Amino acid sequence: MISLFFLIIYMGSFMLMLLVLGIQVKCFHEIITIGYRVYRSYDLPWFRTLSWYFLLCVNYFFYGETVADYFATFVQREEQLQFLIRYHRFISFALYLAGFCMFVLSLVKKHYRLQFYMFAWTHVTLLITVTQSHLVIQNLFEGMIWFLVPISSVICNDITAYLFGFFFGRTPLIKLSPKKTWEGFIGGFFSTVVFGFIAAYMLSKYQYFVCPVEYRSDVNSFVTECEPSELFQLQSYSLPPFLKAVLRRETVSLYPFQIHSIALSTFASLIGPFGGFFASGFKRAFKIKDFANTIPGHGGIMDRFDCQYLMATFVHVYITSFIRGPNPSKVLQQLLVLQPEQQLNIYKTLKTHLIEKGILQPTLKV
Amino acid sequence: MTELRQRAAREPDAASEDKELESEVKIDGETASDSESRAETAPLSTSVDDTPEVLNRALSNLSSRWKNWWVRGILTLAMIAFFFIIIYLGPMVLMIIVMCVQIKCFHEIITIGYNVYHSYDLPWFRTLSWYFLLCVNYFFYGETVTDYFFTLVQREEPLRILSKYHRFISFTLYLIGFCMFVLSLVKKHYRLQFYMFGWTHVTLLIVVTQSHLVIHNLFEGMIWFIVPISCVICNDIMAYMFGFFFGRTPLIKLSPKKTWEGFIGGFFATVVFGLLLSYVMSGYRCFVCPVEYNNDTNSFTVDCEPSDLFRLQEYSIPEVIQSVIGLTTVWMYPFQIHSIALSTFASLIGPFGGFFASGFKRAFKIKDFANTIPGHGGIMDRFDCQYLMATFVNVYIASFIRGPNPSKLIQQFLTLRPDQQLHIFNTLRSHLADKGVLTAAVEDE
Fold this sequence. Notes:
The complex is a heterodimer of chains A (366) and B (445). Helix content of chain A is 71%, strand content 6%. By secondary structure, chain A is mainly α.
């Protein structure tokens, strides 16, 4: 699996996007199948069709929102795409409504309760799998490093916690998962932080990983080429005194991103396991051993991805809160949609602001 | 007297909502006379005679068949009067009312969940449900409030920090709740706890998102709040009346009381009502203007130049209607055209929300969501058709009416880096020059 991971990374961001989509569909399928078995409702009229239809609708909505941002130039060229983008929300809502009405019309007297349960089950599953996978893709577009480092931290935490627990495990951690131990937990935490630190250092050097993914209209493909932002430029940090004595150095050159990676690894080690406990509780609640039998010896796709639930959301929230501001191309897009008078007003406001700040020279006339 | 009261106690239950009879499909629309014959079959949940004492005495001499009609009628008028009072009091009060309705709906649905799963004693669960409600509300209010109260927020230092890291703080709060849930899992009750967790989240998804879209619509202008809600209420009432007087062909097995005559009659009546109501309301600024927060006066103001939508324009009538009315043109507000779309949605799709709620009640074998309003059931019963309306209005506004908010764009622009700002500025300049909006004379101002 790890080699597959490396292979996919090599093939680039578009493949990664497809992979994420594939995983999402498989996770959805696994959870829905569990629902069918729990409720013995495999024969409900229409239900399988409706579940997949809702998955399609929600994906359409999310992909439309993200894709429109990133493919702005491509989209502006095609007339039909422009129409789809402009009324995107309305179209998605109409599609969802059609599914909702089909659900109401498909209610059969004997199976009301089951049908409502499956409806709710589908929606909660969509909420979990589809939103997470879209946040993953948004992180990916920020730069592949925002995708790779969190996921590898979670995987590393899994593996090292298991190893520490295997060799040193003594005190059980939580009744829910008897195999987890405090030694594994703490050992995993420290090793994940170190691993994240090193992985961040290695990956920050390459433009390929660090640059936001952009779609170039001339080349008609994805490119990751840019001037690396400050986060990915080596800076000198003065060490606190006690480390100075240990390492016998005054300063150390680090990428600022490595500091962020400590935050990401900490989250992966401390909160990530809660996602695993949640999944264990879920499996015990519904008396299943594994989500599915897709991977021999490891269970289903969900089993591998249960700890990633919260990680993707955290990384996304982290990026929006601490790293980047609003997306410039999106601001530009919205500007171009306004009425000409509004555009003119904004133009004047911006001009005054830029001149004040000294960014724009008053005498500059093109 | 007591017997009359006892019959009355069963009457509201028998006559108000759908009865759970396994066999027949009603050929005639259910009228009060039919329901009398079924008053003998006991309702599945114990009924409580919660009609207020005063109404009981006032109506005691009427035959029990019409008493229920009167109870419902009086309560309907009371609710409508209440509605008008709230509108009079202004947007801030409306916002608070929407929030209270949301909390009550949430409480009702969660209580049903407890009853269904006999899970009232699950450890921590009540606390966690309310905690999640608080978190999600905090997140949504934070997102909307910061937009509309931008200047106020920038002034106060603690508010500024809260709004800058808003998403992060909300996420942390949610995470704490999630971890508490995981830690509270008890061996014997795993499945129940997961069910309640799922139930809470679906309820939050429905109730909280809808109420926030309602508040968004409200901020666009009170007319976007009042007209849709009144259309749904009108459709409810009109469909009931048409069904009562002319009802014959049943509409859907799920709700035997609904008829095609009621449906179609309600549709036309609602469209007409929507046209009239929007005509009346478009004349007044306080309904039409977006709600803004004025920092000087520290209060909400609704004062503006009405947009094109709310200015009378002349429309030429198609020939077919010209001969009927005898006028060649008519003066209308463009908003009235939009109101036709809103009324159509309220009449055609709104009832699906009602069917969904009926199916839900049958699935879980409950008569009403709660007993808050005598004769009408709980708050959810009144609001079930509004589920989709608020979302539709919001999507409609976002798609067809307004573009992006200019002041918000400026805000976002100011947080960008200087080189990005310059890039956008130059692109905008060339765009405006291309369009011919920007001339050298304008440039020199």
